[in-house]
Each structure stands twice: as structure tokens, then as C-alpha cells.
């Protein structure tokens, strides 16, 4: 909202600047109310543990990083990989793009990720992650270690407009089984079954 003018401004100062402009506040309220009322996506809001994220809703990567506390008003660590370890929150966050092309991904990142059914997902770790590594063991033994993996999935990297595609939040998942190493192929059980409207899109990518 502030562009580059927020440099040196605290969150409290930015909040005050916004609230002092009643016209902008009213406009924002109208836009938000309209978008919520006319959204074509029906989000599952039963998982209050992950608020402000709603299960099966769509978010940009920036929105996800803010919602998970990895980004804030003054600090935005670089995040380009498809995995994110949030030690303080005990989350491993997976960003998955189902439809990969050689033009956009290197041979070492053409992971075999796909939806198996309404409640199972096949996912591959990064190519340098071995079964016995601390990261690999954290994935496999996440319940024992108190971690909750979170899965965000999109069909393709970009929209027809050229903008980055948003991710659908498939929610928390549990380890079921794995094979291989470097990368590890893991089957996750989804806590919240994928609705049909998303299954139709994501299942198409199994044969890609």
C-alpha cells in the first residue's frame, strides 16, 4: 500500500497513517466486504488453529509468508525455495507447483508431486535431502518431534495474465510412508479432504 515510502516507518505509524484517512478506510472496508461476499471460493474455516489462513482458500506466496509470521512490516527474508522450516512455530511449509516445465524448472527441481486422492498427496523433498538427514528425519518423524507439515499447492507457476499463480492451502498433513532418498518420496495424509472443485484441477496433473 505504501510503496517505497514505508521505509523507516513503524507498523504503529503506518496503522495511524491509514486510520487517520477515513476516506481510504471506508473504501477499503467496502472493497473487502464486496470481495468476501462475491468470492467464488468457499473456504473451510473450521481450522481456527491456522487463522488467518482458511483451509482450501487461495493465497499468494507473500500472503502466506505474512500469515505464518515469516514476514512482517519491517523484515522480509528471502524465500525462493519450495520448502520453509519455521522452527519457532514447528511447521514445515511446502510450496508445490504441479505442472512443471523445463523452461521454468531445472532438472533437479522437476519433482513428482501430485494428488493421489481426496486425502492423500505424493510429494518429493528437495533433491539433496537424504532419508537420514536431520531434515529428512523431521519430515518422516514429524509427529514425534512435534512438527506440523503444511501444504500449499498450485496448478502452474503463472496465470494466463503472466502474474504468479496463487496457492491453495490444503492444510496440515501427516506422514504415511516414504521411499527413496535424495529426493525422498513421501505420501502425506491430508487432515482435510480436498473438495471436488480442486480435485478435478489437481488430479489432471497426475499424468503430466
UniProtKB/TrEMBL annotation:
Residues 53-200 form the DUF3427 domain. It comes from the Bacteria. This is DUF3427 domain-containing protein.
Amino acid at each position: 500500500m505504501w510503496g517505497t515510502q514505508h521505509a523507516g516507518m513503524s507498523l504503529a505509524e503506518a496503522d495511524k497513517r491509514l486510520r487517520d484517512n477515513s476516506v481510504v478506510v471506508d473504501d477499503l472496508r467496502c472493497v473487502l466486504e464486496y470481495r468476501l461476499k462475491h468470492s467464488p471460493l468457499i473456504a473451510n474455516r473450521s481450522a481456527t488453529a491456522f487463522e488467518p489462513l482458511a483451509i482450501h482458500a487461495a493465497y499468494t506466496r507473500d500472503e502466506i509468508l505474512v500469515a505464518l509470521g515469516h514476514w512482517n512490516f519491517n523484515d522480509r527474508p528471502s524465500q525462493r525455495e519450495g520448502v520453509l522450516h519455521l522452527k519457532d512455530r514447528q511447521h514445515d511449509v511446502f510450496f508445490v507447483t504441479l505442472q512443471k516445465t523445463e523452461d521454468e524448472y531445472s532438472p533437479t527441481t522437476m519433482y513428482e508431486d501430485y494428488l493421489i486422492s481426496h486425502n492423500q498427496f505424493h510429494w518429493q523433498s528437495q533433491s539433496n535431502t537424504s532419508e537420514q538427514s536431520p531434515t529428512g528425519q523431521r519430515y518422516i518423524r514429524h509427529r514425534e518431534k512435534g512438527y506440523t507439515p503444511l501444504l500449499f499447492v498450485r496448478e502452474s507457476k503463472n496465470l494466463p495474465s503472466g502474474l504468479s499463480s496463487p496457492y491453495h492451502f490444503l492444510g496440515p498433513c501427516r506422514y504415511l510412508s516414504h521411499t527413496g532418498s535424495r529426493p525422498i518420496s513421501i505420501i502425506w495424509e491430508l487432515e482435510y479432504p480436498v473438495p471436488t472443485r480442486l480435485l478435478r484441477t489437481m488430479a489432471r496433473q497426475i499424468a503430466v
